[in-house]
Design a protein that fits this description.
- By secondary structure, the protein is an alpha+beta fold.
- It has a domain at 80-155: Glutaredoxin, CATH 3.40.30.10.
- It contains five helices and seven strands, in the order αβββαβαβαββα.
- The model is unreliable at 176-180 and 183-195 (pLDDT under 50).
Length: 195
């Protein structure tokens, strides 16, 4: 009959540590390439003999495939159907619009129509409504969750953020235009605040 020997916890720890260390060393192995005396190219993980010619030593790291931080499906949607959100300090509607895109993990560009009023009017045929969402060339005025989801789904954006991917933080809510000083009475030729 065989007797079982109890192994102390410290011994278990040392054995586990040694196994992990060996696994790590295997991940970063050395590889040697050389030409032998018969002209054949040799690849080995052991050093070459002294008679070897054209010896090259290479380090082999672990097998890692580098990817971008954005999943491929989101990269494609972003390239084919970029999302632009026009908002101002319009209150709850603009806040919900920004939150909706962030919640879905949609990368988007945020713009304030007050930065280029004339350009925005051309874009919207004279309107100044916000929020305004562009998904590719599709324009969605106002915030309606079902319409926005439909447009984003059609463009290929995921319904929820992809695990491991964090959408870029959107810019802070655009600031409202500063009110004109109290001394500027209406009718004195001051056009500040008119749109």
């Amino acid at each position: 009959m065989m007797q079982l020997i109890e192994v102390p916890d410290m011994t278990r720890f040392i054995v586990l540590f040694a196994a992990l260390l060996a696994a790590n060393l295997a991940q970063s192995a050395q590889l040697y390439r050389w030409v032998d005396d018969k002209g054949r190219v040799e690849w080995r993980d052991t050093p070459p003999p002294a008679s070897a010619k054209k010896v090259e030593r290479r380090s082999i790291e672990g097998s890692v495939i580098e990817t971008s931080t954005m999943p491929y499906s989101v990269q494609q949607a972003t390239r084919n159907f970029p999302v632009t959100l026009y908002t101002s300090n319009c209150g709850e509607s603009c806040d919900r619009a920004r939150a909706h895109l962030t919640r879905r993990g949609v990368p988007f560009t945020q713009k304030n129509p007050q930065d280029d009023v004339e350009g925005y009017k051309k874009l919207t045929n004279g309107g100044m409504e916000v929020p305004l969402l562009y998904v590719g060339r599709e324009q969605l005025k106002g915030y309606l969750e079902t319409s926005w989801d439909s447009a984003l789904d059609s463009a290929g954006y995921p319904r929820q953020p992809v695990p491991g991917y964090a959408a870029p933080k959107p810019h802070a809510a655009p600031q409202a235009a500063k009110p004109a000083p109290a001394s500027a009475a209406p009718g004195n030729g001051n056009s500040a605040g008119k749109s």
